[in-house]
Amino acid sequence: MTERAPRERRDPLARKKARHTPPSARSRAMHAMSARAAMGRFVLQVCTKCGTATYPPRDACPACWGELVWQDCKSGGQLLANTIIHATTDLYFRDHLPWRMGTVALDAGPVALVHLHRDLAPEDRVEVRLMLDRGGNAALFALPPDRGFDMTDPQLREFIVPVQGKTVLVTDAHSAIGLAVVKALHDTGAGLIVAGMLPPARLADADHPVLRLLGVQVVPLDSSDQVSLSEALSKIGGPLDIVINTARHVRSGGVSGGTNIVEQRRAFEVAAIGLTRLAQSCGPMLAGRPHGAFVDVISSDALTGSAGHAGFAAAEAARLSLLQAFRHEMRETGVRVLSVFTGPVEDEHHQSVPPPKVAPARLATAIIEALQQGREQTCVGDVASDAMTRWLADPALYAREKNL
Amino acid sequence: MTVTANQALSAMLAGIAGGTIRAIDLTNILSSDFPVIVLPSEFGQCEPFRMETVSRYDANGPAWYWNNISMNEHTGTHFDAPAHWVTGRDVANGTVDAIPPEDFLHPAVVIDITREAAEDEDFIVTRGFLEAWEAANGPIPSRHWILLRSDWSKRVGTLSYLNLKDDGAHSPGPDADAMRFLVHERDCVGLGVETVGTDAGQASLFDEPLPAHSILHGNGRYGLQCLTGLDQLPVFGSVIIAMPLKIKGGSGSPLRVMALAPAGSD
Amino acid sequence: MSRRPASYDGVAVCAPVTVPYVRFSPEDAHWWAGRALRLLAQHAQITPADIDGFCFSSFSAGPDTAVGLTQHLGLSPRWLDHIPTGGASGVMALRRAARAVQCGDAEIVVCLAADTNHIDSFRRSLASFSRFSRDAVYPYGYGGPNATFALITDAYMRRFGITRADFGKLCVAQRANAGSNPLALQRKPLTLEAYLAARPIADPVHLFDCVMPCAGAEAFIVTTPEIAAQRGLAAATIMATIERHNALPGDPVQFRGGWAMDIDGFWDAAGIAPTDIDTLQVYDDYPVIVAMQLEDLGFCRKGEAAQFIRKTSFDIAGDLPLNTNGGQLSAGQAGAAGGFQNVTEGLRQIIGQPLGAQVPGAEISLVSGFGLVNYDRGVCTGAAALKALR
A167-402: CATH homologous superfamily? Predict the structure, then answer.
């Protein structure tokens, strides 16, 4: 890709555009649906007794009053009715009128009101995705089947994070992960990629072919240093749309033995306090953007701790905890906070870890996908997926196994 | 006629006030982006300077401004005490809190290796080089700081200050014979350099690795690193004031280093 | 098969009152309820002590319910009910009060609906309307009821071939009827051309398909024929009623209401046929629901509303006088009072006390309610046939 999307130009005298988010009050059951939607699953409640699938979320089966559990379901359906809303009292939707919605008979059983892709007409077969709206709540979106995501549908763009033409900060761009992310962003058509270089740097580091790509701007950046962070951000001309936090400090070691407390502190400085610094510095910048997002690359060890990488895992756990709070803070601004969980990466830090390991390029692809599908939580590779599955199934058991 | 102590002190202050004695700051600014030495990754690393604002006339302190700072003892312009090196572990008064105050003031001799360092980033100061220098400039007096002027401080703010390459750092420094000559035959107070360490960038690969640290500290001598402004000092005749913080059991300390020198002497 | 309900012998409905609607009101719902009681006092010469039954309906009286209203308004009833069924609340209040009177649990039951309409209160009340709406409707464009009924209308038009012009005829007729009602908020004549040219709100729903939210109150009294006579109140009897909730949940999109389940028994109990109806007062939040009621109440068969509308005149002087006060589409939609105004208007026409023009010789009114879009459809339906007590 040689053509770069033009940078956005703005009228300095224009009043700041107020950003609103859709109505956010939800029932507890609906929040449970959102939690699964955040993982990219298409789920409905299904009765354990009679097998009836139900929607909207309920607290008892309407057919037999049996117990409802969340299950992955068929996502096809047929469009029964549609409308284009031209008037609303809601500030968010007023900014996005006209808005299309419809009634879909889901193949799984229930009838659902859905957001509607512009190419659909009644009677059409549809594929319904369970996505997150701008406020981070689950929402059903009907798309033409087998067409993938049409990024040009303005309504669909509200549910995803477009990368093309956007300004993206990669906090640690010279690690194996960082270089792969910069490359993937470039290939996807990001407008400006600000590549953070963690000091100390070699003279030749900035000459890496990936960092010499068109549209890549190298800046010194250490998220453990507020001054460095402020200076790096001051070097970004124009708005900042997306932050991809690839900074991490991977070191092996235990707690009572085999540990280096300086390294452990550094892991916390980078992963946890560094996240807070980034959140404080970048949060307000992202909040003003129409499709702001913060992506955090996080170890699946954050879920349980890890005996072999105790300090690193603890720092990643702290990072996960801060990320949850940051996500909550960003909800009302419409900024998406995405976690991309990974197991060991095929890089210099995991030389002694046996496969399977995640290739940096695969991790980078997953980050781009997570953005383009607006998915809050992604697990990349077998180790992270397995960790999440086991953690969701039995956290106490998994924590025990992981630290044996 | 002898000069009384009072007269000596008064004359010095009058000289400073009247401009016949110049006060020269030899310290780099302590900032978070000032490089620190990088050791091979199997070793623990030196923490750079960090500063977080506690309050600045704001909600956290409406009328006052202050910061929390943190760093390694060997961050920025700093002082190496004998206990910094294993060879100096048993030296008397080897930690910064125990250094006798008389050692905070010593005269200096400035050896200019600017031309050599510009031609060869890995320039090694040898005994032969020092003997040739003495032949040209006169003998190195005893109980002096030896200051190596390399103009390396002019690289501060660029990656070429640490000058890291795939095979490590590249910067000038002495070899073991040169150090033994300075310590045993010239009884130096210590070695002061503009680079991030008293030893050369590649000194860990020498037959006697890291000779400056090893020989200086093993013999109770000091190091001063990351100096600047050495180009303003005369070859002979300046006085160095270097007072490390009184850190209990400390191996070194960031500090303000200054020199007094006769005006018009550089 | 369900048991045939008992008759409503010994029950009289009387004293319909309407507190004139306003578009926005700074007052609370309690103020509107108080004004309705004051009108009743004037109309029927009753005092707080006379009322031994009270049935209340409101969306905007929160945090109070009927309980709070008793103390607020000085009532000490021995029978109390709170009806949350919105557009079906009038019929349902009538049914409950009638049985209370019939069984002797109360003698004079005031049925009252009152809602205020602050600026922005419509938006706020939407936000807390129902759990399903909050979870699964409003986040989809926040079109409110307009969007939900747009989907119902879209599917209905597609399925039965009914056109906007057919709906337009209903709206134009109701506006014409409103012309004689001095309390109607919208009385300017509406032409079919203007109806068709109106701006879209949520396709295929356009501006004149939508009601105007407002503040107002409606009330009537359910008592015995003897008490009504003693107080000199013109009254009506109840011929039959039906009520149904969450009917036919298997219909993917609502194309019929709960009436369809119960209508045969209704006509049977009333002992009359649709052709015997003199005035028809149906819930009219959107014309598609009016068309649905024409079918489900038995005026025509399912799918034939378009033909029926085309051949029928709905004016006050027409074949089937429809929503003779203008309905909510013209008189205004005063929250839960919107579910009462069909009862008060149907009653007025047969006791000879219309707000506007009188339907000549009206003796029997059919009143129909429809309420509460909990998710994708109206959940509550009801109907009652009233006959003048002469």
Answer: NAD(P)-binding Rossmann-like Domain (3.40.50.720)
